[in-house]
Amino acid sequence: MLINDFLWCSWTLHIVVSYKYHAELELAKYCVYNICRADVNHDSFLDRPELKTWIMTKVKEHLVEASAENAKIFHHLDTDGDGKILCCVME
To answer: Are 2 and 9 contacting, i.e. CB atoms less than 8 angstroms apart?
Structure first.
């Protein structure tokens, strides 16, 4: 192995390890942030009803956003405005 190869490998390993640590740290911060938001009674514990409420709220938000996005996509694909889009070509 040439010295340049070694330096490149070491540098790459450092970047990968740093990225992994950074990604895990960011994920941990994100989780703590959301757990704190879900703890509606602010007792520093997340109980099952709070978790259930948080999950259901986020699922509903996601469905509303997805529905709006799907409507935009459909409208864009429905070029003639007939309420139909071509999904496949039959031979």
So the answer is: no
- For residue 54, the one-letter residue type is W
Name the residue among 55, 10, 21, 20 with its Cα closest to residue 37: 55
Helices (H), the chain: 3-38, 48-77
pTM of the model: 0.57
Model confidence pLDDT, tens digit, residues 53-69: 999 999 999 999 999 99
| Integer Cα distance of 2 and 67 in angstroms | 56
Burial 10-22 (b: 16+ CB within 10 A, else e): eeeeeeeeeeeee
Length of the chain equals 91
CA 38 – CA 24 distance, rounded (Å) = 21
Cβ atoms within 10 Å of 38's Cβ, excluding its own: 17
